[in-house]
Amino acid sequence: MRMPRIYSCTELVSAFCSMVGFVLSFSARRVFRPKPVLAGLAWMVACGVGAAVLALARDTHAVAPYLAGAGALGWFVSMIFAMVPQHVTLAVTTGEIVPSWRAPERGAPVLGSWVVAGVDAPIGLVLRVGALRVGGGGLDGAGYSVVGAATRTVDCQVGCDTFEAICAAVGIRKGDVGPLVVPLLRNSQSTSGLLRTMAPWLLTMAVVFVLAIVAGQSNLLTTLHGQLVIVIATVLCIVVGITVMVVRSLRIRAPELELRVTPDALVLARFGGDPISHTPWSAVGAVRRRFIQSSRAGRYTMPLLVLTIEGHEPLRLGAWDHRLAWTGEVEKTWRGPCWIVGSAVWPRLTEELAQHRRLNPRDCGAENKTTTVSSG
Question: CA of 109: how far to CAs of 151, 168, 257, in Å?
Fold first, then answer.
């Protein structure tokens, strides 16, 4: 028998104000502002055009490099300014949110997933009202109907309690927490993931290489017409390859598999589809590992979990958040995770494994209970 959900005071007050039409004001934080970036880009383009005009003139060509440098410097300064956090407010009523920095947004509120750019692993929820996107980091969506599209960027972000209060104020109610379902996203930062990402460009280079061989073995390069054909074909191949790779990178990837936690078994299934394997808890194996992830931002330790289930190869799961690192001494592995679990749902997964005696509760660590997000 399910216990009735206990609502917090903030949610009750927000729901009451929503019913009577009161306006609630919430503090939020903007971590990226596009307008300064657009202004800096316009400045750089204008300086570039001016530098090109000056370079063509006989008396002013020496000034052109300085003007071009001023344009690049202006764009760099605008990028730095755009990333300075800004504290804003949100005035919320039913069906409308009035941000302090833009026009009011109206529409039916919808919840979606907020994911890490480039990795697409969930780190929280996003509330959409019109064109406004309010992010709440550290929320796994338990008790909510998350049916909206995922997003990599938000207009502003708030804490977990404030996010739930805003949801209550716009008319979204949080229901009972159902069985745990853990979406599994294929790791795009592994060797195979990087090869899949670079596949269009690698194919483009292969085609260009074949064109070069064909041109060298034929008489195309001996005539001006043939040279023009080869140049046009090469440029078209490169443009198509870059376009396909950029379009694929802009598309948010969806999970392929999911783990469904039941009282008597751990079920591996296709995302939103049919089960693949059904493993009793007594047959589930869980081994902790740590993986050193290197990127442009630096090196950090990623928690890795190797799950052994029936009817499927072992699942190498990881969480894209160094704050969820295992406690105590954990063996290091050279092989990274094949599947990424959202940082918001990772603590619930480890807690379920601990409750079914697949992990030691002390191994999960205090840092594995909650997580917050500090970047958009």
Answer: 15, 11, 28
Closest alpha carbon to 293 in 119, 120, 138, 150:
119
- Please say if the pLDDT value at position 280 is more than 90: yes
Q: Which tens digits make up the pLDDT trace of 92-117?
A: 876 789 999 888 999 889 999 999 88
Q: What's the pLDDT score for residue 371?
A: 41
Question: Biggest alpha carbon distance in the chain?
Answer: 86
- Please give the C-alpha separations between residue 294 and each of 115, 189, 291, in angstroms, as whole numbers: 20, 10, 10
The pair of structure tokens assigned to 34 is: 């596009």
Q: Is the pLDDT reported for residue 127 higher than 60?
A: yes
Q: What is the pLDDT of residue 3?
A: 45
Q: 244: Cβ–Cβ under 8 A, 6 or more apart, which residues?
A: 200
Query: Quick one: tokens of 10?
Result: 């903030």
d(CA 136, CA 113): 10
Instruction: Look at residue 258 in the predicted model and tell me its pLDDT.
Output: 94
Distance from C-alpha of 368 to C-alpha of 305, rounded to nearest angstrom: 13
Q: b or e along 135-172 (b: 16 or more beta carbons within 10 Å of the residue's beta carbon)?
A: bbbbbbbbebebebebbeebbbbbbbebbbbbbbbbeb
Pair of tokens at residue 88: 């804003």
Least confident piece of the model among 1-15, 118-132, 209-223, 264-278: 1-15
Rounded Cα gap, residues 145 and 171, in angstroms: 12
Note the pTM of the prediction, 2 decimals.
0.73
